[in-house]
Amino acid sequence: MARPLSHRIIGWGGALTVTAILAFLVLPAFVVAVAAFNDDALLSFPPQQLSLRWLVNAMSYGDFQTGLRNSIVVTFAASSIALIVGSTFSFVLDRYQFRAKRVLESLLLAPLVVPHFTAGLGFLFLAAQVGASRGYGVVIACHVVLVLPFVLRSVYISLRNLDRHLELAAASLGAPPSRVLVTVTLPLLLPGLCTGWLFAAILSFNEFSASLFVTAQRTQTLPVAMYNYVREYADPTMAALSVLFIVVTAALLTIANTWLGLGRVLNVEHVR
Amino acid sequence: MSSMSAESASVGKLEQVTPARPQDVAVRLDAITKRFGDVVALSDFSLKVYRGEFMTLLGPSGCGKTTLLNLVAGFLSPDGGEILIDGAVVTEVPTFQREIGIVFQNYALFPHMTVADNVAYGLRARGIARDEIGRRIAESLAIMKLTGLEDRKPRQLSGGQQQRVALARALVIRPRVLLLDEPFSALDKHLRASMQVEVKEIQRKLGVTTIFVTHDQSEALSLSDRVAVIFEGRIRQLDAPHQIYRRPADRSIASFIGEGSVLRARLDRIDDRAATVMVGSSRIIVPAQPLTGLTSGAPVDLFVRPEQLRIATDHGVFRGRVVATSFQGDHVDVYVDAPDAAAARVQVRVPFLERVPSVGDAVAIAIDDCEATAFPHQE
């Protein structure tokens, strides 16, 4: 194939640009990963000697251990509550026609446009006003509000893709509404529900700026604990922890994609 | 009013027994009114469907036929009037207690269940014993020629198979009424014809009362015991298919159902039931009802089907010139311009074995002495 030189130059140029962009995307993760396994305490590149000591340090540091425990508690509670609340609202938005529908929809999606630190500050004031102590409750409540739009979207899209005729057919076959819900609606919504929960969980687990305001020493989540660590020490322990974060999140997304068909849930695809 | 007289006139000609005893009414819609916002879809609508009957609701989209089906199924509730199934008022009864079977246009098979589980759904909802369910699934899959496909998922089936599963699922619960919502429209032409024959055969065998909704007039004519032609939420004619085809109650039904041509004619004489109209020097007997109020000599439009016209070997009834021919396999459609006899082009069906005139030929057209209908002249 004799292609004109100009075409070949454009072809190479294109390939080079794409490679550069992809490299740029993974560069931060790559640098952090290299630093994590570097024996040297200073962030030097290239690494002189490989070591797992920072990983060990990260896992044995007391604040990180409580932070991880707190994060897991908050993540599970917040994304589960958000799933229940979000699914209920999605159902209402999908199935019923009412006057304030648009208003409700915008309100539920509002956290998308509110900066996280604003939400955190708001919850901090609110907790002070009602005299609530800075316990888990306020952290979880704050996270629920922040992840709700993502659950709402995910479940709403699944509901939209659900053929109403399936529920009508089930009803015509003698199934009362509760049975239709359990045998037809929920099984078909399951991928959407799981994806919604998973997105909420990942967001909640990584949430930092709002958490910084609403957590106390006792309730600080892992990202907040990391921030506090960085303010005092500058060694690759943080890098090691970041690598852990990336690996866990990637694993969760891979599982979601394989088992739940992430693409099917995210795309508006009609499943018959 | 016209539909009632036409209905009683046609009963004797039906092949199927259409019992008139009131206890044999399977579904009755009584003075139904249904509004969507400000739009009145149905107003004071009444219809009786007899037990075992194949009743078709035929009309263009938006005429209210699907609304009627949804009302019988209980997916919608009427704003006025009553719905009765087997003599019991079900107007307020929820769908799951109505004992109906329904086949949707897209079949609505449960995608997460196997064929067997789909068919078993209604039986399980009724709490029927496990071995009885197994027996009835096997029996119903055998009737539908689906044996061996029990463990397939719906997406692994062809369109025809999916439709059979939908039908099996709806019929296995032995419904009081079977509702069919345009179930053939998703099938290709070839499969559609064979599925229609099958559905009709199964319906007749099981004797299940069936309400079939379609906008396809040929489907309606070929499957039904009776057809209700619905325009704008009203029954315009309720009759056996051949009556609807031969004796359309009004001009719009005549042009909605089948093909045909309009010939200029004059009213000769009109009696109680029959009227005589003249086309040229030929007399044609037509029903008197659509011509009520006209006097002798008044201009009328005679509505004839393509197969009622033929190319005459003698002088015929009127003359014209062939403008187009269209080969249809078993016959040829010949289109004739006959400015003296008809304002629009006249369609004549010529059996394939006969000599087919060529474009440009002058031809004489004869009208076969069979049922036709005339309406008051309209420009």
In short:
The complex is a heterodimer of chains A (272) and B (379). By secondary structure, chain A is an all-alpha fold.
Q: Which features does this protein show?
A:
heterodimer; A: 272 residues; mainly alpha; MetI-like fold; 76% helix; 0% strand; globular; B: 379 residues; alpha+beta; six-stranded mixed beta sheet; five-stranded antiparallel beta sheet; 34% strand; disordered N terminus
Tell me what you see in this structure.
The complex is a heterodimer of chains A (272) and B (379). Chain A contains twelve helices and no strands. Chain A is mainly alpha-helical and 272 residues long. Chain A has two domains: 11-51, no CATH class; 61-265, MetI-like (MetI-like fold). The radius of gyration of chain A is 23 Å and the shape is globular. Residues 265-272 of chain A have low confidence and may be disordered. In chain B, strand 12 and strand 13 form a beta hairpin. The two termini of chain B are 26 Å apart. Chain B has helices at 2-10, 65-73, 115-125, 130-143, 159-171, 189-206, 217-223, 241-246, 251-256; strands at 25-36, 39-50, 54-58, 80-85, 88-89, 100-103, 177-181, 209-214, 226-231, 234-239, 261-270, 274-279, 282-287, 299-304, 309-311, 318-327, 331-337, 346-351, 362-367, 373-376. In chain B, the strands form four sheets. Chain B has a six-stranded mixed β-sheet with strand order 6-7-8-3-9-10, sandwiched between helices. Mean pLDDT of chain B is 87; it is low at 1-17. The longest helix of chain B is centred in the middle third of the chain and has 18 residues, at 189-206. Chain B has 379 residues and is α+β, with helices and mostly antiparallel strands.
